[in-house]
Structures are given as C-alpha cells and as structure tokens.
Amino acid sequence: MLSILIFFLIYAGVSIAVYQLYDIYHSQNFADEEKRARAGKQELEDLALKAKTYRETGASAGFVKGVNAFFGSGFDPRVALAAFSQGDALPNVEPLLRRKNNIICNGKIRIRHAFGLKTRPPTKDTRGMAIAVIIINCLLALFLGGLSVYSIGYDVPAAWMNDEATLMVLIYALILFTHVIAKLDNYMNDLYQIGKLNRHFPSRPLGQPATNAGPSV
Fold first, then answer.
1. For the chain, where are the E strands, in sequence order?
2. Residue 166 CB: number of other CB atoms within 10 A?
3. 106/46: higher pLDDT
4. Residues linked to residue 104 through DSSP beta bridges, in sequence order
5. For the whole model, what pTM was predicted?
6. For FRET with 182, which of 62, 63, 71, 212 sits at 20 to 30 Å CA-CA?
7. Greatest Cα pair distance in the chain
8. How far apart are CA 102 and CA 64, in angstroms?
9. How far is 82 from 79, CA to CA, in rounded Å?
10. Tens digits of per-residue pLDDT, 47-87?
C-alpha cells in the first residue's frame, strides 16, 4: 500500500514539474500583458499623453498628478517619465508597480533590497540562464519518474535508483528548487527592466529649470 502511495506521489510530482515549466514560461512572456489588458489601458494611455505633453511643453503638473494617481503618492515621477521615454509603444509598467517600494532615486535609479541593502540595478539579463536551469530541472524530474518505473523490472547500477522513496524526495526537491529559481528570476528581471530606465532618467526633479551656464545680461 505504501509503495502505491509513493508511486502516486511520484506521478503527481512529475506532473507538477511539467506544469511548472509551462506556468513559468507563460508568466515570463504573457502574464504582464494579460494583467494590463484585464485592468484596461486607458489610464496608461492617458499617462503616456501627459508624459508627451511634458516633454513638449515642460508643464509637469498634469504629469506628476497622473503619476501619483497611477503609481501612488511618493513615487518619483522621473522614473515614470523615463519609462514613457523609451519609444512610441506603451511601456510595461508592471515591474514598476511590483517594485515601486524598492526604487530609490538620487541622480540615478537604485534598488533597496531586504535589510536596507542598496545596490544599482543589474545590467545583464539573466532570464535565459534561469529558464535553462528550470528546463533541466523538469527533464531531471521526468528522468527520475521514468527511472522509478524502469527499476521495477530491471536492475539499476545504484541502490538509490531502486528506492522509490528516494526518487520521490529528489523529484519534490527539484520542484522546490524550480520554484525558488522562478521567484528569483522574476525579482531579478524586474530589477533589470527598471535598470534600463537609467539611460532616460532625468537628473533634475521635474519642473526644475536647467542651471544657466553663465550670468544673464
């Protein structure tokens, strides 16, 4: 009876590992777009229009008010302006909404981590490495699941390969490791996307005129 339960848990673990891969891929590529589509793009389009008006006229009051309404009070409007200065298409603002409490600005965008640690945002995209590790974990879970069935009728070279309980523990350890990697990847990718805004980030507060090069005459 115990062996049947273990084999059922192995089957469930392999199914979870496969679903994890699908869910993580979907989350990485489509989740933000779907979330913004469900919430509606009108507010985002209105804010983009106000950002364009600011760049053309220098009138910051309407844009700052729109940023406070969209992102919440206390959010530096220069970060939003940098996001809307990347091109004509609407930016993906979900990383900003998720990490707005981690963003600090002092001439450049920096990140506040746990325990008050402050660093510059990452400059390299590690998403490709993360998804490669997740795929390998999924394949290992499939291999261990297949090995549990293979070892029923055939000899295997190592004793642990013939122990269904050990194989089950390894499969669920891979599932937990994949979960941790996915969470870390989401965090690091958000910071990477935010860090790209530094190239458009204005050093002066909005509405502050440029310092004159010399005395006026």
1. 103-105, 109-112, 118-119
2. 16
3. 46
4. 110
5. 0.88
6. 71
7. 96
8. 20
9. 5
10. 999 999 998 998 888 999 999 999 999 999 999 999 999 88
